[in-house]
Write a structure and sequence with these properties.
single chain, mainly alpha, 3 helices
Length: 125
């Protein structure tokens, strides 16, 4: 995931030259658009880190739930522990899903912004 962010950064920087050489009246707009891309990349990196942490948490809580679930039938206390483990696992999975959706939405918007930047600021021809 970080590789993609670095590629986006390199791609954005590579586009800065053609936008300047374009010589169109949109030069100021292109520079403004380019300036908004870097903070968005930082945001995407943060969202990816958060999603990765949620994935680790979901994996760990899932493993913990599996460990207590096998003892569910031993006693009521074990059943309660298994229920609590299942609830924690479900909550971790939901957080992972929310984090993944936030990351995907940010990437989709970033890619759309790149497409607009390319259409407006890349040299024609």
């Amino acid at each position: 995931m970080l590789r993609n962010v670095f590629l986006f950064t390199a791609f954005t920087l590579a586009l800065a030259g053609p936008a300047s050489a374009n010589g169109t009246p949109d030069l100021a707009a292109c520079k403004a658009m380019q300036a908004t891309l870097v903070p968005r990349q930082t945001e995407i990196t943060g969202l990816a880190t958060q999603r990765d942490a949620s994935a680790v948490s979901a994996e760990e809580t899932g493993q913990a739930w599996e460990d207590v679930e096998i003892h569910r039938l031993i006693s009521d206390g074990h059943a309660a522990a298994a229920d609590a483990g299942k609830a924690a696992y479900d909550a971790a999975r939901q957080k992972l899903a929310r984090d993944e959706m936030a990351l995907q939405a940010a990437l989709k918007q970033f890619n759309a912004d790149i497409a607009v930047f390319n259409a407006r600021c890349s040299p024609k021809g």
